[in-house]
Amino acid sequence: MATHNAQLELKKTSFISLNRIAVIAGHTFTQLVRMKVFYFLVAFVILIWATKQIIFPNETGGSGSPEQELRLLKSTGFAAMNIFSLLLALASTALLIPKDIEDRTLYTILCKPVPRLDYLLGKLAGVLLLILVSLFVMDLILSLFLHQKLSGMIAIHTEQLAARGIPKEAIQEYLARYEAHGVTANIHYATLTIFLKAMVIASIALLISTFSSSTLFTIIATLVILIIGLIVADAREYVINMAAIGQESKLVSTALAISILFPDLQFLSIEDGVIDGRTVPFSIMRQILIIALLYVATYVVLSWFAFRKKEF
Amino acid sequence: MKTLINSILVIATLAITGWLKMPFEQKLAEQMHELKLVPPRLTLEERSKLKQKAFIATYGSLRPTIAAFSSVQTTQYHSKQEWDKIENAFSEIVLLDPYNLYYWETASWHMAANAAANKKQDLSLTEVARKREFKKYIQKGKDIIEKGIKINPDNWKLLNLKARLLSNRYRNPNYHAAIKTYREILKTPNLSFHNTKNTEFVIQQCLLQIPEKHQEAYDNALRLFHSAPQYRKPTTQNAIFVGQNHPLNKVAKKMSINEIYGSPHDAYRILNIKWQNRKLGPPPYGIEKTIRLLENELKIPNNKRVFPTKPLSIKSTTTHIIAK
């Protein structure tokens, strides 16, 4: 009995508990689902379907237009995924703490033996679960439409090219080019990086929301960081180039500050390469994953640091 | 005070982790640029050209999307023959999606083919101005392809596009430059045999367009002919035949009609076509004589001959003259 009590005590005071996080995450997920966020999937299907209907003019007599149609389908799909996941990550994370304060749920949770880190992790996990499910469904829809378009295209073009007297070898070359734009692991890699980007943005929003008391401020501040994050790579390169020639100025210092303090969001955008039909090596994916997780870990720890003794 | 201390600590942590991650991120960024997984960085000039699009486009996957929809918009300019607007639109589009061959090809095609032809026929301009505008737009088309090659040096299709424009007989051709460009394509690693063969054939065709390269055209045709059966096509066969009959060519061993064409029937058919198109290539040395010989040898009916035999009787000659 004494052992059981001791175990219970230990459980109560443990620094982190996956069970607690899962419960909070599940609750957050349900809360967000009730906001009918999944309706945007209908909009996504309509958008992809409409894009699939677009036929690019083959004006030059070249062979680029079928590839162009596949590219357009992919780029529209990824753009929509990016926008939806950005909006979800930004709005729902910024709303997390203020809504809990408004509903007084926060007080009910924090008066229980729930460490604040568990609370933050649970909330973030709930948002990320929602984004993950959404992206998974969008990835499926995009893959389905892409596969359909490619199959139809291959059937038509094989016949057309053969009718034009083009040798088999050349037809195979054309088809291989089309297939590079079809459903490959690269499509899913790109979706994964969109998710990682959303993770980083959500964790930044979480960090800001632990400081601020206004949802609007959190959204605006996160957007500003997002914008800066898109130029971090340029700033870093500028600093490196200037350092190579030993030049120092205020601009170099500013660029250095930007490249150190802000996250580089450009390397989380491999979609452009995937749209071009390039193969993403696994080693690159691994590195992207490591950096993204490090960002998330840093921002979560800092959020906890700011939130741990915050009084409401 | 507490918030201030917290903020300072947060910033300090971000600075330390940021400093540590910088070399790792730079290395990864370089690798990604090398693999062309991310678009090339925009210069300040390019950013100012793209205006607000530059920012939107930086967010992943939006660049090709904006480029695609902008290119669809250009069809309106095309139908209204607004060439300057097309030029401006495509200068942005290729910045947004620089690794997409379709845009380079369409942009150069609009300039070198459509705009140039339109200006050539523009009666509101003087003849001198028409010629000047025609050349100007062809050059614009060439410049677009050159820019594309700079950004995509490993894409042989852009070289092919450049060479095709350079060897287009209706667009101020420069066959020397075209040959040089086609030969660069042949250096592309892992170029398929189909593409190698096509490139070799167009090099041969370009060589035939340069009168002073008569010997090189003949030697090249011989080399191709003996290298693989796939090269034994009318282009090389005719080049060998004409080349070995060229009065200035050094010919080690003249090949017979059967050696070149396989049979007298094939020789007659191919030479017949060549004769119909004789104005498009070099002087057709020896073709007329050979066709005459083959027509006799193959007993081609007079009404189907390229060179029908002339009637010998005075009566029929008179009838012929009257009919004329």
How are the elements arranged and paired?
The complex is a heterodimer of chains A (312) and B (324).
Chain A: H1 2-13, H2 18-33, H3 40-53, H4 64-102, H5 105-110, H6 116-163, H7 168-179, H8 185-211, H9 215-229, H10 232-244, H11 250-261, H12 271-275, H13 282-307
Chain B: H1 2-34, H2 44-50, H3 52-58, H4 62-79, H5 83-96, H6 101-120, H7 127-151, H8 156-166, H9 175-186, H10 193-208, H11 214-227, H12 234-245, H13 257-261, H14 264-276, H15 287-297, H16 314-323
Name the features.
heterodimer; A: 312 residues; mainly alpha; 13 helices; 79% helix; 0% strand; B: 324 residues; 70% helix; elongated
Give an overview of the whole structure.
The complex is a heterodimer of chains A (312) and B (324). Chain A is mostly helical. Chain A has one domain. Chain A has helices at 2-13, 18-33, 40-53, 64-102, 105-110, 116-163, 168-179, 185-211, 215-229, 232-244, 250-261, 271-275, 282-307. The model of chain A has no long low-confidence stretch (mean pLDDT 87). Chain B is mainly α. In chain B, α7 (127-151) packs antiparallel against α8 and α14 crosses α15 (287-297). The chains are: A mainly alpha (312), B mainly alpha (324).
